[in-house]
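All the exercises in this workshop are built on plain-text protein records. Sequence and backbone structure share a record, each on its own labelled line. The question running through the whole workshop is how a given chain folds. The record below serves as our worked example for the rest of this section.
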Amino acid sequence: MSSRTVRRIVEIAIRASATTSAVAIPIWIGITGCAPQIPSMVAAPASVETALIGKTKQELVACSAVTPNERKLGDVTELIFYKEASLLEESFPVSKSNFATVHHGCLAHVQLKEGRVQSIHYHAVPPSYPDYDHCDDIFAACSGR
């Protein structure tokens, strides 16, 4: 192959790459720009906040449905509770088989300052899942439900 042929092939490849980028990038921006923004965390319902704000760590752990992981962030202690959906909830019968749905759960982040609950936030797992009901289940006994 001559150097002129090689140079022509390289020019065509560069032009094709530039054309693909010129078309693909605006499409990608258009799609991602219109995608709904999923909140990474939401505040717990007012009824849960009312029941938990001011409780000690011991009171919270005693009434919660799951054991939390703990981490320190300066003078704040964060308790992270995770509750996932049961496998039965994630599939439902369709004719002679089951139809699986998204495996999901909820993370509850509880911040304690000076040993008492200051704030509660929920985080759906996966983030695209729209429901936080499993977090409410974590604290059902704490809020008298």
Summary: The longest strand covers residues 116-125.
